[in-house]
């Protein structure tokens, strides 16, 4: 009679802190019961690499402990996609809490020169309105993508030309295209913004309020000078204090003005949250005590 024996694995892991960080941001997963081992590195020194690697390992830890090899592969793919969604959501949440800093960081990552034509969508909101003001001060010709006449009026007051992206054929109002597009919407609007870029233009994605990040195909990547996706957001975190101080200084000097759509007393916080969910506001809402 033949005797079958299950293979038993013994493993160890070690990594080096590297030349960029003071702490080791790598994470490991050891699942000998599945025959699965995961090494998630710290993103080559980018900010919050430890958060990224820990999120990957945390998701992979939840893989089922039974099933075929193909089922295991499918489960691993699902968990990696889940980790990606969680990290994107974390990045969006982080930049919403430091929108002034993010506006500055976006322009540092994708510089704009005087005389260039730039589309910002959405162009009136917490981040968009600051980005528009910074671009106008830099000497750019700014087109603010908005919805409705109220927001169009605000955009024009900030020095931008407004286009309503809720209107059919809105891109036809920009027959010469744009040099740079900052996309905080994604979906169909993001795709339209991408198509408006002239050859050699630059595309920067920082949001996906439409539900999904703008997909940039290989043809567009070849014709454009630069394409930067939402993965740029975590890279901004490390230098947030410097940028926040810069934005506060600009606001104190009257060179930047945040758009406050409505002010609520703290007792009406529930009403403020309801208005946020229903998008019944322009810019930012303010709670006072």
Description:
By secondary structure, the chain is of the alpha/beta class. It has three domains: 27-97, no CATH class; 99-256, 3-Layer(aba) Sandwich (Rossmann fold), CATH 3.40.50; 259-289, no CATH class. It has nine helices and ten strands. The strands form three sheets. A six-stranded parallel beta sheet has the order 5-4-3-6-7-8. Strands 1-2 form a two-stranded antiparallel ribbon. Strands 9-10 form a two-stranded parallel sheet. α3 crosses α4. The radius of gyration is 23 Å and the shape is globular. It starts with 26 loop residues before the first strand and ends with a strand.
Compact overview of the structure:
Helices cover 39% and strands 19% of the residues. The protein is α/β, with parallel strands linked by helices and 289 residues long. β7, α7 and β8 form a beta-alpha-beta unit.
Taken together, the total number of domains comes to: 3
In what order do the strands lie side by side in the largest sheet?
5-4-3-6-7-8
Assembly of the depicted chains: single chain
Low-confidence stretches: none
List how many beta strands DSSP finds.
Answer: 10
Structural class: alpha/beta
Order of helices and strands: EEHHHEHEHEEHEHEHEHE
- CATH architectural arrangement of the largest domain: 3-Layer(aba) Sandwich
Question: Rounded to an integer, what's the Rg over CA atoms?
Answer: 23 Å
Strand content: 15-25%
Reported by name, the CATH topology of the largest domain is Rossmann fold
| Largest sheet geometry | 6 strands, parallel
Task: State the helical fraction.
Answer: 25-40%
CATH superfamily of the largest domain: NAD(P)-binding Rossmann-like Domain
Helical stretch tally = 9
Shape: globular
| Mean pLDDT rating | 83
N-end to C-end Cα span: 81 Å
> What CATH first level of the largest domain would be assigned?
Alpha Beta
């Amino acid at each position: 009679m033949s005797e079958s024996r299950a293979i038993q694995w013994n493993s160890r892991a070690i990594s080096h802190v590297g030349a960029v960080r003071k702490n080791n941001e790598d994470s490991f997963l050891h699942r000998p019961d599945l025959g699965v081992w995961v090494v998630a590195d710290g993103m080559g020194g980018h900010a919050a690499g430890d958060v990224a690697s820990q999120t990957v390992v945390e998701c992979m830890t939840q893989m089922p402990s039974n099933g075929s090899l193909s089922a295991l592969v499918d489960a691993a793919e699902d968990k990696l996609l889940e980790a990606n969604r969680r990290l994107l959501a974390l990045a969006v949440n982080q930049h919403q809490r430091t929108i002034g800093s993010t506006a500055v960081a976006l322009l540092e990552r994708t510089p704009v020169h005087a005389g260039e034509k730039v589309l910002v969508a959405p162009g009136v909101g917490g981040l968009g309105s600051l980005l528009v003001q910074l671009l106008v001060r830099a000497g750019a010709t700014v087109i603010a993508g908005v919805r409705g006449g109220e927001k169009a009026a605000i955009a024009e007051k900030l020095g931008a030309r407004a286009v309503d992206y809720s209107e059919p054929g809105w891109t036809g109002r920009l027959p010469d295209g744009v040099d740079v597009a900052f996309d905080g919407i994604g979906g169909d609007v993001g795709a339209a913004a991408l198509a408006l870029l002239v050859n050699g233009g630059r595309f920067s994605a920082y949001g996906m309020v439409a539900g999904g990040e703008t997909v940039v195909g290989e043809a567009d990547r070849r014709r454009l000078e630069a394409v930067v996706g939402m993965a740029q957001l975590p890279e901004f975190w490390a230098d947030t204090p410097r940028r926040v101080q810069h934005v506060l200084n600009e606001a104190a000097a009257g060179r930047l003005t945040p758009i406050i759509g409505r002010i609520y007393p703290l007792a009406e916080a529930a009403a403020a949250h309801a208005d946020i969910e229903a998008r019944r506001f322009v810019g930012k809402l303010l709670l006072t005590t």
